[in-house]
Predict the structure.
Amino acid sequence: MIRIFLKELKMNCKSLLIWSLAVGGIGLACLLLYSSMEGEIKGMADAFSNMGMFSDAFGMSTLSIATIKGYFATEVGTVHGLGGSMFAALTAAGMLSKEEELHTGEFLYSFPVSRKKIVLAKSLCILCMIAFFTLICTALYALGFALLGEEIPGKEFITYMAMQFVMDIEIAGVCFALSSMFSKTKIGAALGLALIFYAYDLMGRVVPDLKDYLFIGPFSYSNASDIFSGTDLSVKALCFGACLTVICVVFAFIHYNRRDLSA
Amino acid sequence: MSYVIEIDHLTKSYGKNRGVTDVSLKVKEGDIFGFLGPNGAGKSTTIRSMMGFLKFNQGSIKILGMDSVRDREKILKEVGYMPSEAWFYDSMKVSEVIAYAAEIRGKDCRDEAEKLCERLKVNTNKKIRELSYGNKKKVSIVCAMQHRPKLFIFDEPTGGLDPLMQRSFFELIGEYVDKGATCLLSTHVLSEVNKYCKSAAIMRDGRLTMLDCPNIDDDAFLKFYEDEVEI
């Protein structure tokens, strides 16, 4: 099983580096723009915080983008949230289905390894990839703060990156379940799912009737504006996310173990 | 008499589509068993059920005396399988694929792999994506044989191999069988069955007919295909 895990990690290494450096790099570039925009942003901050629903949706009503915390939460928070969720969705969506799509399944499944062990090796690979992705991005953002000469808002920053990691795991869990059901990788569905979760969170913050159901979406507990403005983490949302992740992963194990594998 | 493969009333359907119906089959130890039949007759379905890729509806399969569902991992340790289409991970080198196949089995097969690569003229430095169809088949043969299994299951193995390689392939099978292995060979090529197999069966329409003798003539053989077309 360890050999399958290592092979998966090696094969996905390039994709991991590209996504980590792209998302982390864009986040770093955004951060570095802060010093050049600092003066202008101060003038815009008041206007941004008084734009009603738009300000609520992007968290600018609770945080000032003229501060480094507010700027990081609104700018880098959006980049990392979207980039990370898309990376997690794409990685998990192809993890099982690619064996049938690329016709390598008959090679892999002819080895004396149970399907459960193969699913376990692949799920551990997803977990490691998301962990590496989060670590690389965290390092790049920390570098950004250092280059700007700004102090890292330690507690909020660590909490935010940890919650993003949890959110990416949840999205990956849902897409992993999808991957166990089909013999073709559903790239569109996986990316769509990540974007729907994001849009749901945006809508939930501006539509009063949706606010009570915001906890359903994974972006609710990982929202940068909430975390950097000191709002308590939603335990309800975290519990819901944990349950959904466990259900999806267990479903993937059971379903993949029972179904016919196409050639 | 010891049987390596015992299939008892196997039925597998794909929803409303027929797969195989009530197939029973026994293969003796040391046999080279020819498995003939037109496209879509159910040969691959039977083989894929044996390998545990498909979950069958009825019947039972015993391989090397073990239950194909319950003891799947133990069985696959002793089986060398070659699918009809040889697909590997494109980004890997041939040497990596061969080593990977051995490592997953937890065996050091380097000597045997080297011997096989030499006999089959496999270039182990090439990447999989650079290989032709026939060369991928040769890599598949090495992966199926390097751990010296007790049972070989080959699904249309000679397609894409040149005549010289086909001869080397059957020589290798003969050598392993002489050492106690058993071989089930699915094929469309009657001459292979006539020349190399000790017993044979023909599948048609998802049902299996055992042949008294593997040496059947072309006309009798083609009749199966013609009847299939009419159906």
Summary: Chain B has a mean pLDDT of 87.
